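Dear H.,

Thanks for agreeing to be a second pair of eyes. The structure we're designing against is below in token form, covering all 274 positions.
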């Protein structure tokens, strides 16, 4: 009985409900499954409607994240914890999956540290942002998640996480999924989104990196652009924490999860790919 962490992205063109049938089949086959999902596109659209358009922070190393002030956090919760989370739970429950929708803030599932200051590149200049509500996951309550799984429930998790003193913080969902996979001793971590995987040349769709061992990681890190940098970082963090296999692949199509598990996408392993 394997443990599989499946992170479904929230970019344009992705609907996590499209993966519900496959998730139901995995659970029916006896796998322990934890779902992590994003909601960036829904959040961007809602932010536009509410007159507070999304802003992006680009770090000096090129990593991208959402600028999260207090109003953005409120919009973020509406989309991630509300519409996206509950529509996915609804779809899973309609397939007899006893899904439980939770944010990382609930019950302290994901505890993290808020960044005190963030360096952002704006118009070629480095600026310091001190009021952002973002951070990274430091700990995951595996006991709580295992209690749910042992009771036949399927956790459906989404940001935000919370600080030790209970403040909601925006965290990268890919890296949160990696941290979750690590503490759950997962056999596999699937990072599914609207891209096929890591391209050696972002302008060439045929340059997909299909097999990446720890010895080859530098190639993937140098090739990744934009949000893909976060996914590659999440893959490294998961492997270094003991997860044996990570796949960055597409969330699209009726067999997206099966395709990822069979090696479609970029497959990262601790050793030589077999």
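And this is the sequence the design step returned. I haven't edited it by hand at all.
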């Amino acid at each position: 009985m394997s443990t599989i962490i499946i992170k479904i992205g929230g970019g344009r063109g992705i609907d996590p409900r499209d993966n519900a049938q496959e998730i139901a089949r995995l659970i029916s086959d006896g796998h322990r499954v934890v779902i992590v999902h994003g909601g960036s596109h829904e959040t961007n659209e809602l932010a536009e409607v509410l007159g507070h358009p999304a802003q992006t922070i680009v770090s000096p190393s090129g990593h991208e994240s959402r600028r999260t002030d207090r109003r953005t956090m409120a919009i973020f919760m509406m989309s991630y914890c509300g519409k996206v989370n509950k529509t996915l739970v609804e779809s899973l429950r309609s397939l007899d999956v006893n899904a439980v929708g939770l944010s990382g803030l609930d019950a302290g599932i994901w505890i993290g540290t808020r960044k005190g200051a963030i360096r952002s590149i704006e118009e070629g200049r480095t600026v310091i942002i001190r009021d952002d509500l973002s951070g990274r996951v430091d700990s995951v309550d595996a006991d709580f998640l295992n209690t749910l799984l042992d009771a036949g429930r399927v956790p459906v998790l989404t940001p935000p996480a919370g600080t030790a003193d209970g403040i909601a913080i925006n965290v990268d969902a890919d890296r949160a999924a990696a941290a979750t996979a690590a503490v759950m001793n997962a056999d596999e971590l699937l990072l599914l989104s609207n891209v096929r995987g890591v391209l050696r040349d972002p302008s060439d769709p045929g340059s997909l990196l299909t097999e990446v061992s720890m010895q080859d990681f530098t190639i993937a890190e140098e090739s990744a652009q934009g949000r893909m940098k976060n996914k590659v970082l999440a893959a490294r963090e998961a492997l270094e924490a003991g997860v044996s296999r990570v796949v960055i692949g597409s969330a699209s199509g009726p067999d997206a999860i099966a395709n990822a598990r069979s090696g479609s996408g970029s497959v990262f392993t601790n050793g030589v790919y077999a």
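Two observations from my side: The two ends are 21 Å apart (CA to CA). Residues 134 and 170 are 4 Å apart (CA to CA).

Warmly,
E.
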